[in-house]
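#onboarding

Welcome to the new folks! Below is a worked example of what a typical request in this channel looks like: someone posts a single protein sequence, and someone else replies with the predicted structure as tokens. Don't worry about understanding the tokens yet, we'll cover that in week two.

Example request:
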Amino acid sequence: MIPVTSFSGKTVAVFGLGGSGLASCRALKAGGAEVIAGDDDTDNLAKAARAGFITADLRNVSWTNFAALVLAPGVPLTHPSPHWSVLAARQAGVEVIGDIELFCRERKRHAPDAPFVAITGTNGKSTTTALVAHLMREAGHDVQMGGNIGTAILSLEAPRRGRVHVIEMSSYQIDLAPSLDPTVGILLNVSPDHLDRHGTIEHYAEVKERLIAGVQPQGTAVVGVDDRWCAAIADRQERAGRNVVRVSVRQPLAYGVNVEQERIVLASGGARSEIADIGGIGSLRGRHNAQNAACASAAALALGVSREILQQDLRSFPGLAHRMEQVGRKAHVLFVNDSKGTNADATGKALSSFADIFWIAGGKPKSGGIASLDAFFPRIRKAYLIGEAAQEFAATLEGKVAYEISGTLDVAVPAAARDAEGAGVAEAVVLLSPACASFDQFRNFEVRGDHFRELVQALPGVTPVI
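Example response:
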């Protein structure tokens, strides 16, 4: 845990008592603050009370005594309208911040030179975060990884000289961190997402840019420039004096990092030199993972990792659970768990990475369905449809892709394995990439992916991929 000493002797309101909210309560209390915890959910209030925190309905207290409101990232700050707690804080002149901001203040107080890598983007940030942490750890560094990827930032070990914090950040978290100041900031990409919470794509991109704009003067901003939003951000931040490393997997750059035929290449004017070869690395298959690898490599180089160590450690990256995770193999059949593919855009990245796919899809449907994936339909040998979306997906696939309505994973996995084994192709892929939420049949996508992995590894003759 990171004790938050910057509010010692002061009273702080914490609203939103999920994982990061409770971690904020613990860290503030450990640093000497008095914490008043609030939530709209009575179960969360009861949980905080059992943990020993003072709880209250913050609508019925005086805000004049609060030094700050620490807001959970899931609580609306601006759109579609500010949460009532935000309005109350603003009316009282109380600053509204999040747990990332508390971390930044503690780092600045106690270990301003401690390396801090912050990663954001619409897609790929979890894989890139895990990969940067892996590269730094394998290079011999003391690494703490957390944030949006899982462990609340204040539950990590405290910053100190030589310890590297690698933190995934959502736009919600960035919005609540006005003094965000990473050593290395990575912005992978921007595409329309979370517009219900940001109003417009312009505001969403502006929030993402703050992570790069906050990079320390001697630090490095790594920006994927294959979309127009990030290309403009890179130009703006370079004009503002930032050290910007542009990354592209689609076009050659005069200065920056390119991916050319599975090689990560550093371009500097007319000179080009290979950083690493990612060909044949199963955990980094596909153009989207090439971008993740290139950005992570640029960050690792900025932090002093040598190219020789970088190449070795890219090859040992196991990948992220539930995201293009290779969970088993039987003869010429590869089984891939992409349970984190909860929408069509994410699933498209998985489908683009393989041929001869036996695709398990479905669950709780999202707006738009899978019609946008029709460019990938020629890659699919057969689909196995599960959950509430089965009939809707069947209508989209009718006449284009062979399918069967399996209903559940328990039915779909052995059916797909049987058909893949008999397909007579060099490498058949049984791919779970649902393009749906999991909530019709599973508590979350992790439970869904775990069940897929268990079913696969229980099949006769399957060996786990290590």
